[in-house]
Amino acid sequence: MGNKFYIFHLIPRSGVLNPDLAAKVKHPFVAVSAGSRGAGESSWETPRCTACGVFPNKEFFLKVKKLNLPIGEYALFGSAPMGVRGLRECRDIDIIVTNGLWKEFLDNFGWKLVKTQDKDKYSDGLERDGIELWKDWWPGWDVNKLIKEAEMIDGLPFVRLEKVLEWKKFIAKEKDLKDVELLEKFLLTKK
Length: 191
What we know:
Blueprint: E1 4-6, H1 19-24, E2 29-32, E3 48-49, H2 58-67, E4 74-77, H3 80-83, E5 93-97, H4 99-108, E6 112-118, E7 121-128, E8 131-134, H5 143-148, E9 151-153, E10 156-158, H6 161-171, H7 174-190
Helix pairs in contact: 6-7
């Protein structure tokens, strides 16, 4: 098996647990580098507890898999690329989708139409059961390109961490700045 890397959010190199997550998660999580998994597949597996095999955010990712969305027409964004690596707990799942997939869900699946505002830009989304679908991603990024460049992890496509970092720096809310710090530390370990 490959090298083990401790997840910063839970067990940073200092060995001091993040007190917010330590209260919720009492397991020593590690991410396992499994080497190359083939074209388009990430070399990272989702983090699992070394004692019991549980991993954070599991329920959200199972919900996404149950949607049976077509690969190449969506990618998980927002906190999901961090959540799949155990860097952060997900409160919901943001999924960017192609216009065609957006129209299918808008017309046929009973999702609730929601609106969000970031600075001066409004976006329409669809929400159900903690999962949000977005046909665009502010500040006007090319959703189709983000989907095409997505990284496959455990059978799901995730927007690359470098783009998540760029987006969180741009948004620059307090919670995003904390994520920026986590992402920068994590990306340093991959080099």
